[in-house]
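Example 3.2
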Amino acid sequence: MFVLAAALAMIPMAAQADDGGSRSEDTAIERALVRIESGSWKQADLDLIRSNPELAAVLVDPSVVEDPIIESGDLDETATFATFSLAEPSVVAAVATSCKWVGVAYKQTTFLGDTAYWWHHRVEWCYDGSKVTTWVTRYDYTTNKLSTYYIRDLVVNQQGGVGTSSAWSHMSRAIENCVAKYGCIGEYTPWSKITVSKTGGYSYVGGLS
């Protein structure tokens, strides 16, 4: 947002006047883009973007909110571990450990109703009924991404709770939308926090920003 706003502020007034109506329209679009990215847009801004086929095809429509998709299942990495009793060293108990996975996916949509990108956060974990024993893996990735969208750094990559009754994984990724004529016109940071339990259950929170 700040890059686009700074670029707009540097446009010379004379240059705006030279191009007449065309320059005036471009300036109106640039100002609409700033308001859309800052979240202060009005319906007139959305209508202006919809009237520009180049931008409407690639820019995320902020008025459309998509529900996330949640998927989960069992992993093949089930195993049985031998647990030794300190009170009775001769007693060995077989503790069955199961493993599962869960994934949360968020989608953003363009002004034309097409998919701009899907962002996914997936975790795989094992549990034994008394605690979360380990993460098998935890990661994020994108699918169905338009060519103007660029994957940037992880903004958040945190986890905790392994060895207790529940564990959590929190991830957020920066994704930038850059168009040749207008530069980088949008930055998005989808995020989710998945909590998994000692019995194979899970919950999540998350969103798009």
